Amino acid sequence: MKPVDEHRIHQIFEVGVWLKGAHALIECIGGILLYVVTTNAIASWVNAVTAEELIEDPNDFIAGYLSQMASHFSLASKEFYAFYLLSHGLIKLALVVGLLRGKLWAYPASLVALGLFMAYQIYRYSYTLSFGLLVLTVFDAVVMMLIWHEWKIVRQHRPA
């Protein structure tokens, strides 16, 4: 059996953390945009994007779903999603910075935060059956395993 290549695992850890950071940045941008863009503007944009597809195929599932969601997108929903995206993104950004700087507090904090995010994603998946949530949850689980592994290595190499 071939020994574990710790350098390769560390590289995968760093890539995973950078990807989480990119995702967190996208969430922050999305949250800010939701705060500043009106629900009417969102509905208009979605209708403009889906109009041609719905003219071509009035029964198009995705275009119809998006159009219906945009027409029922309330101010309360918009503010919830804006807050959720921005807070989720900021928490993950802080954790990513801590992990990339090798801060010991960031490892357990990341494990707890990702565990809580995954629990919420699984809860949401039970209602939405969203394939994207499933992929995100699996990715989070892989990143959690990498963080756990990296944390063990970092603790072994720290002076007492």
Any overview of this molecule?
- By secondary structure, this protein is mainly alpha-helical.
- The chain has one domain (6-157).
- The protein contains six helices and no strands.
- It has helices at residues 6-36, 39-56, 61-71, 75-100, 106-128, 131-157.
- Helix 1 (6-36) packs across helix 6 and helix 5 (106-128) packs antiparallel against helix 6.
- The two termini are 33 Å apart.
- The model has no long low-confidence stretch (mean pLDDT 86).
Summarize the structure.
It is elongated and about 65 Å long. The longest helix is centred in the N-terminal third of the chain and has 31 residues, at about 5-35. The chain is mainly alpha-helical.
Keywords:
160 residues, mainly alpha, 6 helices, elongated
Q: How many DSSP helices? A: 6
Total strand segments: 0
For the biggest sheet, the summary is: none
* Tertiary shape: elongated
Q: Round the mean pLDDT to the nearest integer and report it.
A: 86
Low-confidence stretches: none
Give the N-terminus to C-terminus distance in angstroms.
Answer: 33 Å
Structural class: mainly alpha
Q: What share of the residues lie within helices?
A: over 70%
